[in-house]
Write a structure and sequence with these properties.
The complex is a heterodimer of chains A (114) and B (111). In chain A, strands 2, 4, 5, 6, 9, 10 and 11 form a seven-stranded mixed β-sheet that branches. A four-stranded antiparallel β-sheet of chain A has the order 1-3-8-7, with no helix packed on it. Chain A has strands at residues 4-7, 10-13, 19-25, 31-37, 43-50, 53-57, 64-70, 73-78, 87-94, 104-105, 109-113. Chain A is mainly β and 114 residues long. Chain A starts with a strand and ends with a strand. Chain B is an all-beta fold and 111 residues long. Chain B has no helices and nine strands. Chain B has strands at 9-13, 18-23, 31-38, 45-50, 55-56, 61-64, 70-75, 84-92, 105-110. In chain B, the strands form two sheets. Chain B has a five-stranded mixed β-sheet with strand order 1-9-8-3-4, with no helix packed on it. A four-stranded antiparallel β-sheet of chain B has the order 2-7-6-5, with no helix packed on it. In chain B, β5 (55-56) and β6 form a beta hairpin. The radius of gyration of chain B is 13 Å and the shape is globular. The chains are: A mainly beta (114), B mainly beta (111).
Chain lengths: 114, 111
Amino acid sequence: DTAVSQTPKYLVTQMGNDKSIKCEQNLGHDTMYWYKQDSKKFLKIMFSYNNKELIINETVPNRFSPKSPDKAHLNLHINSLELGDSAVYFCASSLPGLPPETQYFGPGTRLLVL
Amino acid sequence: DAKTTQPNSMESNEEEPVHLPCNHSTISGTDYIHWYRQLPSQGPEYVIHGLTSNVNNRMASLAIAEDRKSSTLILHRATLRDAAVYYCILKSQGGSEKLVFGKGTKLTVNP
């Protein structure tokens, strides 16, 4: 009964390939997020969706395309992978409204681009 | 987004209290103080939040200075499982929903 799940957990691929990471939440939340944690351990927001609509896009290259088929899913597709895309990608969800608007994070997807 | 300043690292012994400080001198009146932590190889998890008054929950306590320019996360009895990076984050009510993570404080708990 994992609240926020991500697949795959590990992803090793070659430069130039296209790959997708999937995220699902069973918390009934309206908002979902993608964060990237680089090799220096900095965690940074990439995208946020509310009820399948994009609300935050933090100047991420357009090789990254999030897709939300329904409010329980937010997938991340990455085209033409580059070495610098190697990182851990975390999905999160929250129920906006009154504070604290707690965000619940998934376990992460460790992407290594060779 | 308002910024926070935390020590890079702290150490504690098991079963002793730990006080993790955070400075946020540019905090605005609508900013809530949130704490998250990230255990090794896991995603961040919510710990506690507050606005003006001190707060307690089953995980920790949050002490907020009267002028709100600083706060302290208190773990009453550290366990090995509390070893993690602790992030102090300011988040406005009604503002952007994103969390802006700083470098955090890496807490080491010695047995």
